[in-house]
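Narrative progress, year one. The postdoctoral researcher (J.K.) led the effort to move from monomer predictions toward full complexes, under supervision of the PI. The following entry was the first complex the group processed end to end, covering 674 residues in total.
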Amino acid sequence: MTYVDCLRAAITALKANLLRSILTSLGIIIGISSVIAMVAIGSGAETRVKESIESLGSNIMIVLNGSRTTGGARGGTGSNVTLTEDDAQALQRDIPSVEVAAPAVQGRFQLVFGNTNWSTSVQGITEEYMIARNWHIDQGRTFSEVEYRSAGKVVLIGSTVAERLFPGEDPIGKVIRINKVPVQVVGTLATKGQTPFGQDQDDVAFIPLTTAKKRVLGGRWVKSNLVGSITVKVREADSVADAEKQVTDLLRQRHRIPEGGQDDFNIRNISQFLAARAESTRVMGILLASVAAISLIVGGIGIMNIMLVSVTERTREIGLRMALGARRRDILTQFVVEAITLSLLGGLIGVALGIGGSHLIAQTGDWPVLIEAQAIMMAVGFSAAVGVFFGFYPARKASKLDPIDALRYE
Amino acid sequence: MTTPLIRTETLSKTYHIGGGDVRALVDLSIEIAKGEMVAIMGPSGSGKSTCMNLLGCLDTPSAGNYWLAGEDVSQLDSDALAHIRNEKVGFVFQQFNLLARATALDNVELPLTYGRVPRRLRHQKAEKALAAVGLADRMDHRPSQLSGGQMQRVAIARAIVNNPHVLMADEPTGALDSRTGAEIMALFQRLNAEGITVIVVTHDEHVAAHARRILRFRDGRLVADEAVAAPVRAAEAVAAAAGAVEAPGAASAPLGGPLVPEAV
Ligand SMILES: Nc1ncnc2c1ncn2[C@@H]1O[C@H](COP(=O)(O)OP(=O)(O)O)[C@@H](O)[C@H]1O
Ligand SMILES: [Mg+2]
């Protein structure tokens, strides 16, 4: 009997008990479809995170001001401003693995253009910041040396801000007001998308650090050397962790923090996030594998059960086939093929449902999903393997029947 | 005569159940020549089926030897026996044993699938066999859409599709009324006339009377080996009955007649 004949016989047999076949495959269907959906969601999240990490830069750390404690009430990050432009210069100059250290100040302001307005994060930056955070100009130009140095009334806006303030218009050359200070849009920033934390990175406006301090923030910032943050870019080849240690040491020394004293700054970097992500990916992987394994085992037992029933029901048929010349291995093949067909059918329906389900999740939940061919192939392969594994015993039982006893079976 | 188609020497089958032995077949030594039509007779439990199963290579003897077409088949393994059943033996059972889900054509093709006959050739052979039993117009019918006699004819087509040396039928008319039984016997007689060796197991004297030789069994032993001087000619009985009751052509026309599809 050829495999094609076996397949035909299997399909006939499965069609004869269609409902039973479908119910039997249900375990596999549910298992495979949920695995496909979970993998799709997982890989979708993975790619989104990966993309946004790339846009953020994995070799970046951000030094923020520490917190001030007044009378037991702790003020939170940035409440104790101690970082200075000189700190930034020192970091860049004295630590070899630091490529750039970019001082910046930031605040939320209402941007006004004509009668439209938009609240956004305004960053006062230096040229280094553009390098450190890998910002590029989309249209127009970046700030000139002079503008950086002498508080030029210019602004670079992110694509979100451009869309909000200048829908359908060319923003270049337009004058907007930030905290009542008129500044001219000289360029727009190339789109970056979201951060791993879901923040829109394009909802920003950049002005020179000097402009921010003197004209926009005002007050204590005007004459001071203080900054809100220092973005440090570590050289590609060097370890971020090592650099972080050196940055910490240098800042502690510069801020004259005694041995054992608390840092008056905070360092954030992506590698911590990466580690957490690796861990969650691992947990997710284990979870997925166990869901898949359990459902496939349960599904497989279901198939084995129904194949045993089927062998008993069709004892006479088996006897007849033997009388007509079927060898033991023909019977074995026939029933194994039947079990594989059953589980593969479940697998394929499961894949289809899984893909459908993922798309539904993608649409309704606005959650990125990514269906990988590899996952589908694995699912199909595993369901076939389940058929072989759990179908073998019943098939072997069938093939061991004595033809005469089988023919006489009532 | 040349080598007999079937030769056995002290062929025996003993079943061990519980404490005692059941000697289902005891020291059978017979020869059956090619082209014979033999009836195996005897009361229930006399060892007829056991004998047929051994001769048909469905079972292996406890003792003795068996040569089928000159080949000693008494000690072959199950694969080799399967091969012999597939090529050299055609079985017909009391309960027809057709696959319920398969069409008549698919049922008849079944032995050919185990003989690895290519698909196209299978169809041709199966169609020919069905035509030979007068069911050319029932090829796509399932067993449930056929009468008992038609089902048994499908089973006979399945038995002869591979041109076996010998056709073995165990109580082939046991589940049929006497008239349909006569039709089946007529078909066996015609196939025998065309050269196929036929062995019919029956407990019914009238059925046995269609053969040219009767082997009588009692308690597992061959007790008589008789030649039948004038076998009943089933085709005549069928024709007579058809004439008497003015039966529709479908029931009897193909038997013994030309191998053309029945006109309904
Ligand atoms: N598988 C078996 N196990 C035990 N005894 C059996 C078996 N098959 C047949 N027999 C016994 O062998 C004897 C002959 O049986 P069988 O050949 O079927 O008789 P018949 O076909 O003439 O009615 C009976 O006594 C029966 O009980
Ligand atoms: Mg019997």
